[in-house]
Amino acid sequence: MLHAVTTIKHLPLVWLLTSVCVACGAADSTLGPSGPPPHLTIDVRYLSPLTAEQRGVVAAAADRWTRALSKDFGNFRFDYAANTCFPGAPQLNETHHNPLIFISVGEIDGAFGSLALSRICAVSGRDTLPIISQIQLDQDDVYSMEVQGILLGVITHEMGHALGFTPGTYTPRNLAGGGTADPYFSGSAARAQFALHGAWYTGATVPLENRNGNGPNDPHWRYEVFRDELMVGEIAVGLRSPLSSITLGYFKDLGYEVDFSVADSYEVTPLFGDGNRVPPGLTLANDLRTTVPPAVVAPIISR
Ligand SMILES: [Zn+2]
């Protein structure tokens, strides 16, 4: 069962529950039973009032992932009381298909510091991929993220966690190792893409972040190696947060079908000491706040 997470001190008393189904059925209707899996569908539900502009950014992030990834998750039955996974989580009584992501704006740690966080509420019992997640944007940072032009990168990054860039997904598959000093992700597709774009690197690949002492449980590429790539644990004003073919390789290793043409152009380029391009005090480190094991839900097998 799901457990309440109590690390949030405040949530809006009045939250707005709306649902936006992104790319629903866009590619499904023409596919026969033997066709490729449909493009990913992400069901986004807002638990806080977001401006039209902010929702547009969320839609753009979801569109990026849905164009890149294809997967038939199956159907899942959700029967959860309100507040089961996180404070403010709505009651769920529905059969659902594909990932469900709640998006809210609330207090995390005040201005600066952590910009956003993700929680994984439930995963598929078939393949450990998340099927219910929450993305929370820090209410004291969301405006400045918009002004600085980094909101799209932050939301796309958090959606990456919500779609499976989590140790809870790759660790059960034995796709990570290296201990605290030199953690790495070992999926073959990600490694192949890394070799194409980072041949200069001679260490174990693909290097995960090693600055926070979490070993392979830190679900970010190593910042000193990847610099501004989307799935590093930092966000840099003026840099691109590119979605690389390496990250798409990661998702291929998890079982998604991947359209590599959606990737941004990207070459692995080490920092070489210019880390000062990251503004101090802005971070996505430790943004995966799953403090209790997510529920494991078996898909409904239609017969
Ligand atoms: Zn992150």
Count of the domains: 2
Give the C-level CATH assignment of the largest domain: Alpha Beta
The CA-CA distance between the termini, in Å, is 26 Å
Q: What series of H and E elements makes up the topology?
A: EEHEEEEEEEHHHEEHHHEEE
The helix fraction, in percent, is: 10-25%
Q: Output the structural class.
A: alpha/beta
Counting DSSP E segments of at least 2 residues, the number of strands comes to 14
Overall pLDDT metric = 85
Named at the architecture level, the CATH assignment of the largest domain is: Roll
Bound small-molecule species:
zinc ion
- Poorly predicted regions are 1-18, 23-32
Assign an overall shape: globular
Keywords:
single chain; 303 residues; alpha/beta; Elastase, domain 1; Leishmanolysin, domain 2; 7 helices; disordered N terminus; binds zinc ion
Summarize the structure.
By secondary structure, this protein is an alpha/beta fold.
Word description of this protein:
The protein is an alpha/beta fold and 303 residues long. It has 7 helices and 14 strands. The chain folds into 2 domains: 3-166 and 286-297, Elastase, domain 1 (Roll); 170-282, Leishmanolysin , domain 2 (Leishmanolysin, domain 2, Alpha-Beta Complex). The strands form 5 sheets. The protein has a 6-stranded mixed β-sheet. A two-stranded antiparallel sheet has the order 3-12. Strands 4-5 form a two-stranded antiparallel sheet. A hairpin with a 5-residue loop joins strand 8 (116-124) and strand 9 (130-138). It is globular. The structure holds zinc ion (ZN). Residues 157, 161, 220, 233, 284, 287-288 line the site of zinc ion (ZN). Zinc ion binds next to helix 3.
